[in-house]
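Person: At home tonight, work slowly through the protein below, taking as long as you need, and write a paragraph about the fold.
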Amino acid sequence: MVASPVGIRPSRESTTMKVPAPTLDTWPEQAIRGDRIVGSRYTSRDFMEQEWEGMWTRVWLLLGREAEIPQAGDWQMEPVGREEILMVRQQDNTIKAFYNVCQHRGNPLVDEPKGSNPRRFVCRYHSWAFLPDGELQFVPDREDFPEGNPCGKLRLAELRCETFAGFIWVNMDPDCQPLRSYLGPIWDEWNAREVGDWQRTMANTVWLPCNWKAVLDNFNESYHVPTVHMGATPSTDRTAIAGGINTYFKETRFDLADEGHARMVMKGGYGAGVTDAEGKIAEPLASLLAYWSLDPENFTGRPDDTREALQEAKRSLGPEKGYTHYSAVPDEQLTDAFHYTIFPNFAVSLWADGFHFLRARPHPSDPEQCLFDNWWYASPASIQAEMDDGMSATDSLIGDGQGDAPVRWLNLDEESIGPAIEDDVAVLVTQQRGVRSRGFTGAYLSGQEKRISRYHERIDDYIAGKL
């Protein structure tokens, strides 16, 4: 079930009592160099290799999910580029990450995406066996090695591994900075939202015929939204487009962190296109107001007031309805779209109760392919509301409360990647064709696309060894 992305505020006539809220913090201004973004960055195998050695092997990568490996011995494996990373829950409840490769002759240890409670990982080539902590426990014919018994000498190759927001993060650089300093302001903002407790309600994964950066470019700006998703034309008044969010750049907040991440805050857009011919509030906004004890009739002729009214109502009534994270977030987070891009390959739209997970991973060898995840997470209270009331009071895809939805591997030619995102995917595929052309001499970016500029400059700085 899809509920509209919400962004709304309680009317001045609302009877709810306003509770003091945290304020939205300010990120520092960043200078943009304006480096040219040319087509070969998306097609060149040489540039792909420079990215891999200079950037991918030195940054923190969001890979697994803690909830998927809850018990000691549970494991999860995820690919990223030419590597496969094996994440294993330990007896002390911590998680270790290893390269999924036997130390004998390089055969992968596991092929499935996850498993439960192994006593050890046994290589199917020569039966070398490794314990969940990476120790080599057993080798056949151990007396036949000129250098001595491999047990006690060899272990699985381990990566730096930390957990945050319910996810497992890894870094291939043994000398990397801690995850908290890498994430900068993201750390405190996401902790307040309790997203570590949210549940995955949809998970679609597909191979796309485009470079992974095309995906991140797309989700680093909202300039495309009126055209790709709303059918705008050159003559369209972009300030008057009706939608769940307000994408007009003059009313959007664009933030860049010192650490290379970005944040875009778009106000809830229910002030337009949500009334009938008589000015009365229409669906789905009418039901949303009613859920938060607000009478839609009170907003006849003035839909703009609903954003502030909902903020006040959610802050006042949220705790008793089970929305415990509301007290720790600013008013804007209760109604608006907070869109983050975490360098290098993760984008997320974070609503009041919905977490839209968008991740692109490079192909092992082809710069014109990438692995794309379109997943949704929902807060426990929003899932419970759906099950209790049979309606959605949130802005996410709603699950059944029975645990994380399994990942569905799709065929792009046969299945839809998901609502709305299929519009983005169609453009990404055609754009990849265009950047191959010698007629494309480089991107000519607007001010509202500065997150793309900074993003590519960050890649270049890693390749140049400046970071």
In short: Residues 76 and 114 are 4 Å apart (CA to CA). The two ends are 43 Å apart (CA to CA).
